[in-house]
Amino acid sequence: MELILDLRQGQHQPVDTSARGQVVQPYHIEAVAGRTPGAPAMGFDGRRSRIVVPPSPEFRRLGGIRVTSSVWVDRVRGRHTIVEGYLAFALFIDPDRSLGGTVYDGIDWGGVQSEPDAVPLGRWIRIVFTYDGIDTCTLSIDDRRCAAEYSPLGRVQGVEWPYGVNVGAWPDADKRVFAGRMQELALWRSVGGDPGTLG
For residue 38, what are the CA distances in angstroms to 32, 33, 34, 45? Predict the structure, then answer.
């Protein structure tokens, strides 16, 4: 898998620490206490916060994907977006505190959903969403698989203009805004014939 985005709180604002140097456009993000001392996290207010990463050459071909994030969820009052690549993939928390991950095949969205109450409030958790670019989606929380789905969705579509990758909010509007903290959010892709290990 190839790392193409690694968002973390920098000295003044969120930055991409991957070798790709993606453009990062934060809106109403505050530096807050992180998972470990001395490592601030990105704070989302549940109303206006988001981070936008415009489309880039790396986002045009995704194939299989892995999304990882360490998050602290303050509250859930509807669907809350963790990250969405416009017309490509999405990772989100639903009102019943289930975790969902979907990909777009060019016609429709498909993916995987955990059982209700899978996402706890008020503590740090590590989330992993993977799709192998062929037929297998998985979700895990704190290294424990909480859902898997097998459906031949094919390769993930590229992230489209005009919205790019949106972290913490629905791309189209100030809706589904995440309330809590993110220590980091990373995106990998697998565009070759072998999707690699998607744990």
Answer: 10, 8, 8, 21
Look at strands 50-53 and 165-167 and give their pairing: antiparallel
Of 182, 184, 163, nearest to 174 by C-alpha is 163
Cα pseudo-dihedral 28, 39, 18, 64, rounded to 10: -80
Instruction: Name which of 58, 62, 46 is nearest 16 in CA terms.
Output: 58
Give bridge partners of residue 111 from the DSSP assignment: 102
Structure-token pair, residue 109 = 């969205």
Query: What does the alpha-carbon distance between residue 57 and residue 79 come to, in Å, rounded to a whole number?
Result: 29
For 124, the enclosing helix (H) or strand (E) is strand 124-131
pLDDT tens per residue, range 95-132? 999 999 999 988 899 999 999 999 999 999 999 999 99
The domains of the chain, with CATH numbers, are 2-190 (2.60.120.200)
Phi, psi of 59 (to 5 degrees): -85, -10
Distance CA 133, CA 71 (A): 25
| CA 182/CA 193 separation, integer angstroms | 32
Give the model confidence (pLDDT) of 161-173 as tens digits: 999 999 999 998 8
d(CA 88, CA 139): 17
